[in-house]
Design brief:
By secondary structure, the chain is an alpha+beta fold. It contains 16 helices and 39 strands. A hairpin with a 2-residue loop joins strand 5 and strand 6. Helix 1 packs across helix 9, helix 6 packs across helix 8 and helix 12 crosses helix 13. InterPro entries: EFG_II, EFG_III, EFG_III/V, EFG_IV, EFG_V, EFG_V-like, EFTu-like_2, P-loop_NTPase. Keywords: GTP-binding, Nucleotide-binding.
């Protein structure tokens, strides 16, 4: 988002409805290269929002405006493109199809009231898209389908429709079927409800051959619509042969879509303009308005007093920042969905952000003032007079607002329940290229973390590395490019894993710290016994000193010196763990013994014991759960074995999926987010958490 304009773009006034019933928020979902951004361009051009449609290959589309998106020729972030169709404002929310940017997709789902799945006619439905469909179903989001790119080689509408029905269920039914010319090219659509042909010459009744072709699908569609009708006599009348009025079917279609019982399908050939008007009609007439969307639960900023709001423009203000970008001209731009109340320019708001501290977003509450409201059209910001419940808008210069924050009235501060965010699983260690880049790196990291909640920043106190946890390789590339565009030259380095060591066997150690240099000297002697403990036991310190060999006041000094040496380690700064250290004997001097002397003696005794016992290097092992389609199960199991993983169980799930649980060394998981996606054609996902430290094979210790 960057350039600011006021008034109209492409001849169409900036839409700013006052009634939520006049709004449709639709998120476009689908695999990368399925045609989502191209479809948005066609819809923008058809509504005269822009003079003509841009092209992804030329880098001229409204939604893909970032340099990285233009360079890669694919969407990398959420973008909003509002259009007006009749009396309805449609907020088209374009989201990336690549798995690395699932955080942007989740934000789009949060901002929307319905989802439009865009499936390329030559490709069908992949496992990742199937998973998103079921995620939408779980929260009751209405869904429709566009079968796109009908002009591409190998395009097969019937195959794609069948693929959608296999993946999404029998509720997926076509509203239109493609009509082809004498050369087999798609040149129009046949409406199943109306029985009319829609092509470049206008609308006309279908001929006998077309009516016969659409008879079966038409009957199935009408029966599915009537099944959701509140008029119980409608089915009997239809089965008796009565022709049901089109307006009745359209009204019941919206009910069926809103309830999730029917998912309409529209074929589209954006290059030829086929299906574009029908998609707009379907969204405006068949998709629900924000009035039918159950709002997220709200509390006060401390998480108390939960309550539900309604999408009432006169209700208490509750809006949420669903996306943040940083523009070189206007600074931070916050895209907000207003759930309740009305946002107005020059008004105060309370900004609440809680629950994301683990990702680098400390809890915060600030009062700010909204200067202007904008209707975003890709990178263009067009000033708007207000933003009512159900609508989307962009705000600038709200300095404390981050993605996921709640905007509310300062007199009634609220906090919206956050949406689920995926866990970033690809670590990338970064360093400033030169000392002069360090300030720019810190500044830009803060901006990135504020904008992208799928990114996690970790400063590892043991390896002393700055690690960015990303969703995948493409996400990492975009993050690094954004850092460099912000003026921070950065380098990457291999991610190091924090190791531990322990004793191979019990041992004894003698520590003698005696120095004389005039005046008071230093005198301390101690003898310790060290034995290894089971994994995860930590450090225990005990004493069996008899006869006051070590005065009582100096026993804590020995412990302090031993523990400090354990933390420092005795080789390469690797901490020692899972040991019991027992002080058994020692000597003291009435004048020269001191706290510092016995700390030094304790440390020397531990080093001596370590040399005698020998050390075992321990590496962190993570518990991993891989969610994988059954057809890729063998490849994943073999790969886990090659990573020194130990499979501890498999759990079959519905729909041909399996969860594989394994314990895998953390050093083998550094690039697993990339590898498991490659093994599964992008469909697999996994989670990980620390399980334990286990001995590292001797051959690998020497490599380290």
């Amino acid at each position: 988002m960057g350039s600011k304009q006021t008034g109209a773009v492409g001849g169409q006034a900036v839409p700013a409805p006052s009634n939520p019933a006049e709004i449709r928020n639709v998120v476009l979902v689908g695999p990368s290269a399925s045609g989502k951004t191209t479809l948005v361009e066609a819809l923008l051009a058809a509504t005269s929002t822009i003079p003509r449609a841009g092209a992804v290959t030329e880098g001229t589309t409204v939604c893909d405006h970032e340099p990285a998106a233009v360079e890669q020729q694919r969407s990398i972030g959420l973008a909003v493109a509002p259009v007006r169709h009749g009396d309805v404002k449609i907020n088209l929310i374009d989201t990336p199809g690549y798995a690395d940017f699932v955080g942007e997709l989740r934000a789009g789902l949060r901002a929307a009231d319905a989802a439009l799945f865009v499936i390329a006619a030559a490709e069908g439905v992949d496992a990742a898209t199937r998973a998103i469909w079921h995620e939408c179903a779980a929260v009751g989001m209405p869904r429709g389908v566009v079968i796109a790119r009908l002009d591409q080689p190998r395009a097969d509408h019937d195959f794609a429709l069948e693929s959608c029905r296999d993946a999404f269920g029998d509720g997926v039914l076509p509203l239109y079927l493609p009509k082809r010319d004498a050369n087999g090219e798609v040149d129009g659509l046949v409406g199943l409800i109306t029985g009319s042909v829609h092509d470049s010459s206008g609308t006309s009744p279908a001929d006998e051959a077309l009516r016969e072709r659409i008879g079966g699908p038409r009957g199935e569609l009408i029966e599915a619509i009537i099944a959701e009708s509140e008029d119980e006599s409608l089915m009997d009348r239809y089965l008796a042969g009565e022709e049901i009025d089109e307006s009745t079917l359209i009204a019941d279609l919206e009910t069926a879509v809103a309830r999730g019982g029917l998912h309409p399908v529209v074929p589209v050939c954006a290059a030829r303009g086929v299906g574009i008007r029908e998609v707009l009609d379907g969204i405006a007439r068949g998709f629900p308005s924000p009035l039918e969307h159950a709002l997220p639960e709200v509390t006060d900023p401390q998480g108390r007093n939960p309550r539900r709001l309604s999408p009432d423009p006169e209700g208490p203000l509750a809006a949420e920042v669903v996306h943040t970008s940083v523009d070189s001209y206007v600074g931070r731009v916050s895209l907000a969905r207003v759930f309740s109340g009305t946002l107005r320019p020059e008004g105060p708001v309370h900004v609440s952000g809680h629950g994301m501290a683990d990702r680098g977003h400390p809890d915060h509450d600030e009062d700010e003032r909204v200067a202007h409201l904008y209707s975003p059209l890709g990178a263009t910001l067009r000033e708007m007079p207000h933003c009512v419940a159900g609508d989307l808008c962009a705000l600038t210069k709200i300095g404390s607002a981050e993605t996921g924050d709640t905007l509310s009235d300062p007199s009634d501060p609220l906090l919206l329940q956050p949406w689920p965010m995926p866990e970033p699983l690809l670590p990338v260690a970064v360093t400033a290229h030169t000392r002069s880049d360090e300030d720019a790196l810190a500044r830009n990291l803060n901006r990135l973390i504020a904008a992208d909640p799928s990114l996690r920043l970790e400063r590892d106190s043991e390896t002393h590395q700055l690690v960015l946890w990303c969703m995948g390789e493409a996400h990492a590339d975009v993050v690094l490019q954004r850092l460099r565009e912000g003026g921070a030259e950065v380098d990457t380095e291999p991610v190091r894993v924090a190791l531990r060591q322990t004793f191979a066997q019990p041992a004894k150690g003698h520590g003698r710290h005696i120095k004389q240099s005039g005046g008071h000297g230093q005198y301390a002697v101690c003898d310790i016994e060290v034995e290894p403990l089971p994994r995860g036991s930590g450090i225990e310190f005990t004493e069996r000193v008899v006869g006051g060999a070590v005065p009582r006041q100096f026993i804590p000094s020995v412990e302090k010196g031993v523990r400090a040496q354990l933390e420092r380690g005795v080789h390469e700064g690797i901490p020692l763990v899972d040991l019991r250290v027992t002080l058994v004997d020692g000597k003291a001097h009435s004048v020269d013994s001191s706290d510092a002397a016995f700390q030094a003696a304790g440390a020397l005794a531990l080093k001596a014991a370590a040399e005698q016992a020998g050390l075992v290097t321990l590496e962190p092992v993570d518990a991993v759960a891989v969610h994988i389609p059954d057809e890729h199960l063998g490849a994943v199991l073999g790969d886990l074995s090659s990573r020194r993983g130990k499979v501890v169980g498999t759990e079959p799930e519905d729909g041909g999926w399996t969860v594989v649980r394994a314990h895998v060394p953390a050093s083998e998981l550094v690039r697993y987010a990339i590898n498991v996606r490659s093994l599964s054609s992008g469909s697999a996902s996994f989670t990980r958490h620390f399980e334990s430290y286990e001995p590292m094979p001797e051959a690998l210790v020497h490599q380290k």
